[in-house]
Amino acid sequence: MNQILFIVGARGAGKTTVGKLLANELSYTFIDTDHHIQQTSNMTIADIVNQQGWLQFRQLESQALQKVSQKNRVVSTGGGIILSAENRQYMQQNGTVIYLQTSADILAERLMQQPENTQRPSLTGKSIVEEMEEVLAAREKLYCECANHIINAQLSPEKITTCVKEIILSRIIS
Ligand code: ADP
Ligand code: MG
């Protein structure tokens, strides 16, 4: 069984939280594309975007995705990974894609509780709720299109983990 599990969703959806739990449950290795980019470049995501621009960041992100995608891994992705058709195709062809879906309100609520964790610089100066509404309006279709399974991200991390684990195991058996 050579599974790669890709977790997609907006910032605050729980990709890191759930990804770590899932990796533990499945005895897979957890890896986060943002974390990988920061480690290999020795810069924060915010600094990369500020100094080199979004285009460069998106290129680093695509490279990181392919680099970290090895068997028996849970890959937690950056919120914008699905913007690239190449990334969507790569994930679909190389693993199972799980979309952690929730509303802009919930995302904003979670991000406001942890402002230091909002690594991406705001380009708009809008409120977090407005920003998340715009992000979802632009990306929801792509998240859904890319995903093999859409999971309600308002469930507890433990419930989501159990649910995804059942899906993965049933895919392996069938
Ligand atoms: P992401 O990696 O998708 O940006 P995180 O895993 O960092 O999201 O979670 C963002 C915040 O939301 C954290 O404070 C985390 O504790 C909280 N969180 C994550 N998943 C859930 C959940 N299912 N229910 C409630 N809070 C959650
Ligand atoms: Mg994360």
Instruction: Find the structural class using helix and strand composition.
Output: alpha/beta
Secondary-structure element series: EHEHHEHEHHEH
Q: What is the count of β-strands?
A: 5
How would you sum up the global shape? globular
Beta-strand portion reads 5-15%
Poorly predicted parts: none
Instruction: Characterize the biggest β-sheet.
Output: 5 strands, parallel
Gyration radius, in Å: 15 Å
- What's the helical proportion of residues? 55-70%
The ligands found in this model are: adenosine-5'-diphosphate, magnesium ion
Compute the average pLDDT: 92
Number of helices: 7
- Cα separation of the termini: 12 Å
Key features?
58% helix, 174 residues, alpha/beta, binds magnesium ion, single chain, 5-stranded parallel beta sheet, binds adenosine-5'-diphosphate
Protein described:
The protein is α/β, with parallel strands linked by helices and 174 residues long. It has helices at 15-26, 33-41, 45-68, 85-94, 104-113, 128-146, 157-173; strands at 4-8, 29-32, 73-76, 96-101, 149-152. It has 7 helices and 5 strands. The longest helix has 24 residues, at 45-68. α5 (104-113) crosses α6. The radius of gyration is 15 Å and the shape is globular. The model has no long low-confidence stretch (mean pLDDT 92). It is 58% helix and 13% strand. The site of adenosine-5'-diphosphate has 16 residues, from α1, α5 and α7.
